[in-house]
Amino acid sequence: MPQPANLSPGAYEAEGGPVGALLIHGFTGSAAETSPMGRYLAARGMAVQCPLLPGHGTSPEDLTRIRWQAWAGEVEAALEALRERCEEVFVGGLSLGSLLALWLAHRHPHVAGLIAMAPAIKLQTRLLPLTLGLRRVWRYNPLGPVGDDDLGDPESSERVWCYDQTPLWGAGEVYLLQRRVRRALPAIRQPILIFQGRRDGQLDPGAAQLLYDRIGSADKTLVWLENSGHNILADGERESVWEQSHRWICERAGGGRP
Predict the structure, then answer these.
(1) DSSP per residue, 167-187
(2) Considering only CA atoms, which of 159, 127, 213 is closest in space to residue 36?
(3) How many other C-beta atoms are found inside a 10 Å radius of the C-beta of residue 188?
(4) Structural domains in the chain, sorted by start
(5) pLDDT digits 0-9 by tens, 160-174
(6) What's the distance, CA 138 to chain centroid?
(7) Sign of the C-alpha dihedral computed for residues 169, 170, 171 and 173 taken in this order
(8) Is the CB of residue 167 less than 8 Å from the CB of residue 246?
(9) Are the beta carbons of 78 and 49 closer than 8 angstroms?
(10) Quick count: other Cβ atoms within 10 Å of Cβ 9?
């Protein structure tokens, strides 16, 4: 897995106007995934927070005894920081980040809207539930890390900072959060914009549709990216994701364009 020297995995934030965006990265990844989109939105007047989840951006060892509640606490703090200076806050997330965004929306009805990118509602592998037991035997996935070979743009790896091992303890925590979020979907009412890549090798092909069908939102939009893999924030159609997300937020922000 890549860790390009020119990328910083650290958190990013920017001051802005009355509309804020909280962007949450994926499992074993870093804020290097979300910060380019954050900068795009900040350049258009939005306040932005791209937190670094606990256990990420350092060493895989730090994900071997983490709890999903630590990730939830970090994003909840980032949400509250935006609320202090913004009238409305939209929350977006990639993969694990989408689960955390949905969890926030369920707990905080004031969240103005959601952007679920490659939502980890259902994975292709059926082994995720087994990680709760396997993580007591193996520290890391014995089959190796989950690769990015599904990405359409050959230069995508230069835009990704992530771990070169998959800690099974952390994967088990993703599963525990996934179960909780799936149960909560009918009670989540905020507007939602969902993206999934056709080439995604990690999600079930129907994951985005499953989220669309089960969430309680009346205002919901599903966008398929024909040439993107799982990490749509690094792949070749990433700028389209930024642009569509910004336009979608502007259409729903109470004060018009941020």
Answers:
(1) BHHHHHHHHHHHHHHHHHGGG
(2) 159
(3) 22
(4) 12-252 (3.40.50.1820)
(5) 999 999 999 999 999
(6) 26
(7) positive
(8) no
(9) yes
(10) 19
